[in-house]
Amino acid sequence: MNTTETKSSFQDKLDQDLCIEPKDTMPDEYRKHLIRQISQHAHSEVIGMQPEGNWITRAPSLRAKQILLAKIQDEGGHGLYLYSTAETLGISREEMIEQLHTGKAKYSNIFNYPALTWADIGAIGWLVDGAAIVNQVSLQKTSYGPYARAMVRICKEESFHQRQGYEIMTNMMKGTKEQQEMAQDAMNRWWWPSLMMFGPHDSDSPHSGNAFVWKIKRKSNDELRQRFIDKTVQQAETIGLTIPDSDLKWNETKNCYDHGEINWEEFRRVVNGNGPCNKQRMTHHIKVHNEGAWVREAAAAYAKANAK
Amino acid sequence: MDTQLDLWEVFIQKKDGSEHAHAGSVHASDSKMALQNARDIYTRRNEGTSIWVVPSNYITASNPEDAQMLFDPSTEKVYRHPTFYVVPAGAKQI
Ligand SMILES: [Fe+2]
Ligand SMILES: [Fe+2]
Asked: What spacing in Å lies between the alpha carbon of A184 and ligand 2's midpoint?
């Protein structure tokens, strides 16, 4: 098949808002872009289990523990949906994990921050999953069929994640003065990193150009960030939490919130490996992966022996 | 040698009487593990009443380029649809 033909059938489908499916011809760059984005998304789900897993044994009640376990299990599931989505594009699971371990593939920066108190579990569910939901809802309309379908499945599960986090924050705000301070402290630490989850401003977002043309990305970083802020401010106010941004105010003419300057210096520092937990997250993943090797080996050997 | 095990496709029947539809895939060393993994990954919220798993390399898919050849001829065969036929006025229950 020649390149002009590839382009035209691919472009036709995009123009008609049809999904691109695994066996369809597609430009190499489209494939590469998706592999990078989907594998990064998968890695984020998996690495994201670490800050929360840190609190399973210390959850304040059996109910809280059951909920947190179910939430973390979902995140593992999300990672698996997304790895298999990326595999439809011709990359193997081994390659993706190798790229994660060598640093070639990234994961969401947010998971390089520590979960210091129980309130952080509330803040993560409410803010981090809340931000992820805004992003993932828009990706339900992404042009690659398997990715769009994975997003539909994931979005169905995410709203429980956000609500359980918000419930933790609500309960703490109804608690003692110390508990309220703990909730506010978690809010202060997670707010800005949550805003950074949407990536750089549209004016300097290096990967966006083609992503829009190819309909992989349907809403810009700034649009999504704005949507998240506009939803979240009211939720914070309802339970008495303060958004740690003195420049935050309602803009009558634009009909949305104006917000303060995001510290991109910090963002770059953490992306480049110098956040509080970058090393810990990767060391842990590599360790667990290597320690599990014998299980995979044994399973493969067992299957082989039984096949004879 | 480390391995991520084999790829299996997962089909889920949402409720009794409905068809099995493709849900995604899992990695597993054999069919038993594939079923177990599919259950854990795709049916945590009562999404299914039955699961099929099949090794991915056993699936043969039609090529998108052949879609015209395969599916277009049927559009010409309008007589396959009941609306093609003229029923005389007054005839009932047909
Ligand atoms: Fe998730
Ligand atoms: Fe989540």
From this structure: 22
